[in-house]
Amino acid sequence: MKNILTVTAMSLLLVLTISCKNDSDKEEKKIAVKSPAEENYNISILLDLSDRISLQKNPNPTMEYYQRDLGYIKSISEAFTQHLKSKRIRQMDDKMQLFFNPEPLDPAINSIAKNLRIAIDKNNASKDLLNSINSNYATKTSKIYDSAIKDNKYVGSDIWNFFDSKVKDQCIENSYRNILIVLTDGYMFYEGTVIKEGNRTTYITPELIRKNKLNTQDWDKKMHEQDFGFIKANEDLSNLEILVIGINPNHNNAYEEKVIKAYWTKSFTEMKISRFEIKNADLPSNMETMIKDFILKK
After folding, report:
1. Alpha carbons 158 and 100: distance in angstroms, whole number
2. Which residues, other chains included, contact 141 with Cβ-Cβ below 8 Å and sequence gap of 6+?
3. Which domain of life, per UniProt (predicted)?
């Protein structure tokens, strides 16, 4: 009887030990998994300052496209500050910056963009600094668009080249959650980067879509069978999340929007983008929740 009790006691002790160990392992795993508030954000905004924002070429009586961009940027900066305010000061190590490609000819625009490169950490974080981010971004980005529209010399937007030669150096850092937000109408063209390899190109325009007869209901079949799309700009961008906002297709072609989104989706998939969304141009009030949810991972 004594031996039976001893064995039973040892068995119970073993069960309790294993149970405690499992509970301990679970707690360690919980601690190891960072919440969104604990992550370090590295947010980049790429502006397409091509003639898509021209008041003469692309007027919009409801809300001009540059004003929509400013509304999107407002939501981005608000999400960034919301993230910062959810962290303790000692946890802060977050960044937000703004890019163009190519750089505008106006040196004043480039100077403003440099002032919009924000790095917040425990050494410089303060309530005043955090409260100034939204107004600072709103004021200075407005000046960028005003200057570009007044200058009226739209050189195009070399987005393909940005992904080919700049995105890794400028938008991706280790130990950060890297987010790139591209404000564009979905078309790409820059005279200095016109490359064609088979049916792959570095650009997409309404003329290209018409020329390749991708404006009919069998566009999807043709695109896959004949391998239309962007030339692959990068091999592995798996440490990057991308949100594209502002797709604005030519409405003379019922399939234009689908073709544009298919080009971008194919490109992002081939570059192994970890997470991406592609959204049409819409009023900022309709896009605010989506933008903040994407950034804050809700």
Report:
1. 9
2. 69, 70, 73, 98, 116
3. Bacteria
Domain boundaries, the chain: 1-33, 38-296
Give the pLDDT confidence of 160-188 residue by residue, as tens digits: 999 999 999 999 999 999 999 999 999 99
The total number of residues shown for the chain amounts to: 298
pTM, two decimal places: 0.88
Nearest to 157, CA basis, from 202, 198, 196: 202
Cα–Cα distances in Å, from 215 out to 171, 191, 230, 259? 34, 24, 17, 8
Q: Running DSSP on this structure, what letter comes out for residue 165?
A: I
DSSP class per residue in 126-146: -HHHHHHHHHHHHHHHHHHHH
- Which top CATH class is 38-296? alpha beta
What pLDDT, in 10s, does the model give residues 102-149? 988 788 888 899 999 999 999 999 999 999 999 999 999 999 999 999
N-to-C CA span, the chain: 60
User: Strand 177-183 vs strand 196-197: parallel, antiparallel, or unpaired?
Assistant: unpaired
DSSP 8-state secondary structure symbol assigned to residue 235: S
CA separation for the pair 237, 168 (Å, rounded)? 8
